[in-house]
Structure formats: structure tokens, C-alpha cells
Amino acid sequence: MKHRYLPMTEQDQKEMLATIGVESVEELFSDIPESVRFQGLYNIKEAKSEFALLKELKQLAAKNEDTDSNVSFLGAGIYNHYKPVIVDHVISRSEFYTAYTPYQPEISQGELQAIFEFQTMIAELTGMDLANSSMYDGGTSLAEAGMLAASHTRRKTILVSEAIHPEYRDVVATYAAGQSIDIVTIPAKNGITDLDALKGLLNENTAAVMVQYPNFFGQIEDLQTIGELTHEAKGLFVVSANPLSLGILTPPGKLGADITVGDAQVFGIPESFGGPYCGYFATTSKLMRKVPGRLVGETVDSEGKRGYVLTLQAREQHIRREKATSNICSNQALLALAASVAMTALGKQGVQEMAKQNIAKTRYAKNAFEAAGFEVAFQGAHFNEIVVKTNGSVTELNKQLLQDGIIGGFDLGRVYPELENHALIAVTELRTKEEIDSLVEKMGVYNA
Amino acid sequence: MHNENQSLIFELSKEGRVGYNLPELDVPDFDLTELLPEGYVRQEAAELPEVAELDIMRHYTALSRRNHGVDSGFYPLGSCTMKYNPKINENVARFSGFANIHPLQDESTVQGAMELLYDLQTSLVEITGMDEVTLQPAAGAHGEWTALMMIRAFHEANGEGHRNKVIVPDSAHGTNPASAAVAGFDTITVKSNEDGLVDLEDLRRVVGEDTAALMLTNPNTLGLFEENILEMAEIIHGVGGKVYYDGANLNAVMSKARPGDMGFDCVHLNLHKTFTGPHGGGGPGSGPVGVKADLIPYLPKPVLVKKEDGTFHFDYNRPQSIGRVKPYYGNFGINVRAYTYIRTMGPDGLKAVTEYAVLNANYMMRRLEPYFDLPYNRHCKHEFVLSGRRQKKQGVRTLDMAKRLLDFGYHPPTIYFPLNVEEGMMIEPTETESKETLDAFCDAMIQIAREAEENPSLVQEAPHTTVIGRLDETRAARTPVLRYTKA
């Protein structure tokens, strides 16, 4: 058959069959027993021409309400941020996106060096000694941190703050079930992890304490104290951190974290309906040989020239099989590249300025909501999210806001029953004063 | 590729340069020390580079030129299915209605995306012969673990939580035993026989009432079809275990045999391999899992369903589910690409894909057979494994030949895998390569075999034309430098 991806001609086929010494292509499948042989063709949609398919899929895409043509205040772990235009130009270079994992370093120096730079930037932002080449996303990265902690401490209980992203907590629980690790939830009080409750839960079985920074409600946790309490109990302190916020917040590495994980989606990666994103995993030198996934290290060639290789592979599945520190193989290399380009473009100053703008705009929104008579649920320090109490269902309210081209905040009642009629509103640097004012005004009208 | 030292981006940094342009701050600025608790305002800035936009573009363009992708040249990396990555896929994934939708938007606002996912699920059900598919796993290994967690939940629900052994052939991908361990199982290795297939006698010996599952790749990593698959499934089912299909090699059997018809209970696919992901330099992937009816209750949450009114819905009410395996719904962007590919190929196209992939592999195998040892001499499927034993006797190792291939502009095959072949070279051409490309590669291989005899040092000292020579991996591991530090 003729197809633009299939260069085989009839002449080619004839010559190749002759070289092989068979009469037909079918003969090459003679080792598949008749009884399991699939007959005919798959019952799937017929092929479409390039033009017709583009047209159909464009129409399908247009059925969705996107954050480009609407004004979004939806965050809850994934944010609508400034994406430097160059990010997409770089990751569209097919030398990067059509390559496999850099197993042949001599012809993969570009990818290897880009990952080395990514590892450096993540280590810088988190204040940790080192970072790996990426994980699937923030949630699975947190779960891997939990497994590392359990194996390192030989303990079987992980304390997880209720103020961590609920979907992250679910993923941690699924992984924990496989390892027979117990998950105990540390309750939140006034929107932050309850330290008194934590003290009561810590004991000699505690492998790790996990908190989020800023937490799911946008509030800043007292990492210093939580870290000290965790270490007194000889557990590992695991922080899930929004790396953008670390442009302005004291990094977890300076506040006692043993492992810092999170998602670099905030750096140049579109919301893309849940993925692909870019999990990161950063830790201390002490835990270096237990890190999951790939690490790139610097070395030299036979002439002393600097170069980069995948290293410490004795941790990994393709060498260690069932004794590996994790089963991860493919990770999110292309997204790590995207995040690197965004972090490079923002640079030392931009990451601070962008983080600061998020705090300032969110503070402005908080004041505006309060001035309009809304109750803002938690009064602690925040980054780019606040919790606003509404009179009725947030989901219903959001349907009305959409009529005005606004994608409203996350309906917290969906996962926290006690927070029914509370919206988690995210305000990033992209939201203008006018848009914030409009949100407050419209919510005031619909809320009445 | 050009031959000069490549600076790190940090070494290009100069204080005061910027590469960004944020919106103007149009609300009052605040004093951070008033808004943040004491000790929580960062004191030392993160040392990110300070570089202007052109220099950033030049830096990454230079890096890209030091990287080999499928678009740069032939990439016969066995088991990785390095086929062409269609450009239409990239365009579709970037449509704003796909790229710029938030996973927590109300379902009514993302019906187009959900329809696409549902249609992809339905297509994969047909392609695998399974009863239901989840698109959530982020990659192959993640899919393996997800399916094993479901098998674990199935046995526990049947009061058989004692089943703690997963059987894996010695030729299996390393992820198989690693995924089994993460899911809390012990691994038992089953041997291959002299034909390169699972030794049935050994399989009978290792199964028992503690058997949870057998993980099998078919065709296996030697590129050989496990002809006794029905008997193997019978052995495992006979002791109450489940049979798991590692779909890494699905490119070999599309429209020829479906895992669901071969007795498999569950399967994972690598959409970034068979369905043109792309690979991205090591991800992102997508590793959907298909299951037979009795495993459906354990699928990860949420399950995408079509309601009677024709709308799509994420169902969280799944009391027996293993839970969430990933935040949100999987690597949507990769699923969009795979869907675009399936719709581009259609039923005839997918059949041709497999036929040409297998034809290409057999052709190369027969062209190279006179020059290298071929441990398993029978029709292969989409890939085959040569042994460098003959050349090793001349002092030239498979690693040397792989490095010599770099001088010809090729990415080498997968080497030293599977583990049951001495000095193995695993070659997978894929269906998107022309006969001319295959011939040119074979010519290079034959030339290298000749060099190994006549001028071994030329091969032993390769590569000669790359931007960098062989790197000191021992040094990298012994004194790890995993980040740049300002001098």
C-alpha cells in the first residue's frame, strides 16, 4: 500500500523477499499459530487525508473552552503562566524530540548537557545538593520520595499532610499499597498542617513526613519546625514545592528538607489537560545513590575534553532489575528541556520578579474580595492562591462565570467536604488588575 | 556536528542581562517582609543564568546539533521502535483547544478532549483485543506497575493475597522485574531454551500456588514469536495466575495477532514507540493498559466513560479500583499524538506498518547473516539479535563496533541486550526506513566486520568523527559531578 510514512515499493518488496528466500510477506508470520492469528483488519476508523484530519481535529479541539480565549483563575497544582515564546521553538527542534534516551553519549551530548543544566537549575532553586533528570510529574515524584524514605529508614509509616494536593496524596497511597507502607494523614487546621497533631503522630515507625510548600490552599507551611520535629523522630522530611515560588521563598534545602519534589509545569509547560508535565526530584548528597531515575554527570573523554554521561546507573532497572531503586525508565526529558529553557529565559532576576508578581496580584485579589464583602477563609501567608467562601455551589457559580469568559477557581468541596462552597482562586502574573476586578465583581453578582 | 567546546549556559551568564519580558505589574507592589513570615523570604538568589534571547537560542541550537534524532539519521535501536515521528502530530497537540485546557475544568467544557481520549481507548481495545483500556499510565514501566497492582488487587479480592511471585523470562526488559518489585512481588526468572523461547519445562517447574503472574513480551526481546503462547497461558491459568503482555514489541504483530486472543489477561502499550509518541530524548511516554473483563473493577481512577446521552464523564465511583496512579488523566499530549497517528494510518495502514517492519528486519538479518553470528536462525519479527562473538575473537567487542557505527552517521543498535546473547546487537529498523537506508547501513556493518579482521584498532579506537571521544564513565560514577558549581 502507498502511504507517505511507508517508503516500501513493490520492486523493493520483491527484491527483499528474494534475499530472504520467501515467496510472500505472509510466510514471515508463519510462526504465529493459526488459532491465535488475527484475520482481516482492525475495526477502527478509516484513514483520513492530512488535510481532512487536521480539519476534523481542529473542530474537536474547538469544542473545548481553553485558557487562551478565556480568563483563567483555575490552579490547584497546574497554572496558567507566562511561557517565553522561545521554549516551543527549542523543543520543536527535532534533534531533541526525535531522539531516544541518551545511551550513546558521543552523539547525545546536546541532550545530556541540557539535562545537566536542568539538574543544576533545580538544585539551585530548591537549595538541595542535587536533582535527577526528571520524573513523570509532581505526584509520582512524591510517591517515589515516599518509597525511598521507607527503604532508607526501614520504617513503614508515612505521615502525609492533608494540605497536600489531594490527587498527589491519592497517588502516594497507591504506591504505598504496593510496598505495604501505611499512610497516615496529618490534619490541617486553618489551612496549614496542624503541628500539634503532627507531634502526636510522629514515632519510631515514621519513615517520612510530607508537606507541600506552598500548600494546596496557597498557604506557606512552617517548614523549619516541621523539619526539626521530623528529624527528632529520625524520619526523612519530604517537601513538595512549587519551584516558581522558590524564586522568592526560602528554599526547602535551607529549611531541613531531605527530599524536595514537585512539578516544573510552572516553567513554560502548557496545561495540556493533565500532561505531559515535568516532575523533579532533588535531594541531599547523602541519598544520592538511592535516587530514582536517570542522573547525568560530568566527565572527560580520552583527550581530557569535558563531556556528559548517564551515571550511577547501578541504581537503575536496566542494570539492577528487581533490585533497582525504582522501575522508572522513560521520564519527561523533553519537558525538562522546556523547563530549562523557561528557567534560562527568566533567569536569576525573572524568576524572582515573576514569583513576586504572583504574591502581589494574589494579595490584591484578596483585598478586593474582602472589600467586596467576601470571606477569605485562611489568613496565613500565601503565594498565588487564596480560598474564597461563596454562598452557593462553586461549580454552579463557575458555569455562570464561563458565560463571561472566565474560568473560575477550583471547587474545594469536591475533595474537602468541610470546604463546600469554597473556591480556590489562583492569580498568576498573567491576570491583569482589570481581570481580577471583573472576577470579584461577577462573583459578587452571581453570589448574591 | 561541529567540533568545539560547548559552554554551559551558566558560563554564558552576565550580570544584568535578561531573556524574559513579563507583563507590567499593574497592582500595588508589597513589601515581601510584610507578607511572608520571618525567615521565609529567600536571602540568596537561585543562581539561574542571565542571558539574552539570541544567546539562549544559539546555545540550544548548538546543543541540538550535538544530538542525533530520527530526523538526523537511521536509528535502529532495538526494542525502542525508533520510527518516524509525524509532524502533523506535533501540530495537532499544539492546537489551543488541546494544549491550553486545564485538567480540573468542568467536564462540560472539555468534551472535545474527552471524546478524543474515549475514541483512542476504543481503538486500543480493538487493537489489543482487550475489554477495556486506561490511558493513565505515563510510560511503559508505569503501565507495567499499574497492571501488576491490578493483578495484586484481583488476587487479594479473591482471598489469594498469598500469591507473591511474578515470573519473568531471562530475556525480559529490566523494567519487568523492577515493576514487579515496586508492586510488592518477588521475581522468579524462567529460562529460555535453545530456540530462544521460554523453556516450557522450566516454566512448569517454577509455577505454583504462589504464582501471581507471568510477564511476557511477544515477540520476545530476541524478536522471536513465542509460538507456545497458548500452552504457556494454560500453564499459568492452570495454577490461578494471570498472564501479562509487555506491549513494547507490538509493532511486530499489529493486525496479525492480538494479546487478547493469545490468552493474555492484561497488556501495556508504549504509545511513544508503536504509535509515534515521539521519544523526546527520554520521555514523555504514554503507557496505556488494557485488561480483560475480570480485571476491570480494579482499573485506576478515574475511568473515562460515555454516558447514555452521548457525553463523556470521568467515573470516580469505583470501589475496587487500585486508586490513582497519576494526577489527572495521563500524558494527554502524547495520547493526542498517538490518536492522530492511528487516524492517519487507519486499519490498512496499521497492517502495512507491521508487515513492512517485519519485512525490513528479516531482510537486514539475511543480509548480515554471513558476516556476524546469528544465534537464533529463524524468521524474526520486527527486530533481530546478532552476536559479536566472531569479532570478539579478533579482539573487537560489540561496544567497539557500535562506536564505529557513529562514524558512519548511524545510531548503533541496542547492545549487550538481551542478556542471554553474548556480545548482543539488537537491530530494529522499523517500517518507515527505505531499502536504500537499510542497504547503506548493512554495507557499513559489513565494512566494520571487515575492519575487525583487517584493521581492528580502527574499530577499537572509534569513534573518530564525533564531537567528543569515548567518555570516562568510571570517573563519572566514582566522583559524581551532577551539577555546575560556579568556580
Automatic annotation (TrEMBL), chain A:
Catalysed reaction, written as an equation: N(6)-[(R)-lipoyl]-L-lysyl-[glycine-cleavage complex H protein] + glycine + H(+) = N(6)-[(R)-S(8)-aminomethyldihydrolipoyl]-L-lysyl-[glycine-cleavage complex H protein] + CO2
Coiled-coil regions listed in the entry: none
Keywords: Oxidoreductase
Gene3D superfamilies xrefs: Aspartate Aminotransferase, domain 1 (3.90.1150.10), Type I PLP-dependent aspartate aminotransferase-like (Major domain) (3.40.640.10)
A single GO BP: glycine decarboxylation via glycine cleavage system
One Pfam family linked to the record: GDC-P
Chain ranges of the Glycine cleavage system P-protein N-terminal domain: 3-441
Superkingdom of source: Bacteria
Broad class of enzyme this protein falls into: oxidoreductase
GO MF annotations, alphabetized: glycine dehydrogenase (decarboxylating) activity
Enzyme Commission code(s) on record: 1.4.4.2
InterPro entries in the record: GcvPA, GDC-P_N, GDC_P, PyrdxlP-dep_Trfase, PyrdxlP-dep_Trfase_major, PyrdxlP-dep_Trfase_small
Function recorded in the entry: The glycine cleavage system catalyzes the degradation of glycine. The P protein binds the alpha-amino group of glycine through its pyridoxal phosphate cofactor; CO(2) is released and the remaining methylamine moiety is then transferred to the lipoamide cofactor of the H protein.
Oligomer status and interactors: The glycine cleavage system is composed of four proteins: P, T, L and H. In this organism, the P 'protein' is a heterodimer of two subunits.
Protein family membership: Belongs to the GcvP family. N-terminal subunit subfamily.
PANTHER family in UniProt: GLYCINE CLEAVAGE SYSTEM P-PROTEIN, GLYCINE DEHYDROGENASE (DECARBOXYLATING)
Descriptive protein name: Probable glycine dehydrogenase (decarboxylating) subunit 1
Organism: Ureibacillus yapensis
Gene transcribed to yield this protein: gcvPA
UniProtKB/TrEMBL annotation, chain B:
Taxonomic superkingdom: Bacteria
Domain Glycine cleavage system P-protein N-terminal: 35-304
EC assignment: 1.4.4.2
GO cellular component: cytosol; glycine cleavage complex
Catalytic activities: N(6)-[(R)-lipoyl]-L-lysyl-[glycine-cleavage complex H protein] + glycine + H(+) = N(6)-[(R)-S(8)-aminomethyldihydrolipoyl]-L-lysyl-[glycine-cleavage complex H protein] + CO2
Protein name as it appears in the record: Probable glycine dehydrogenase (decarboxylating) subunit 2
Cofactor(s) the protein requires to work: pyridoxal 5'-phosphate
Organism: Ureibacillus yapensis
Family: Belongs to the GcvP family. C-terminal subunit subfamily.
Complex formation: The glycine cleavage system is composed of four proteins: P, T, L and H. In this organism, the P 'protein' is a heterodimer of two subunits.
Keyword Cell cycle: no
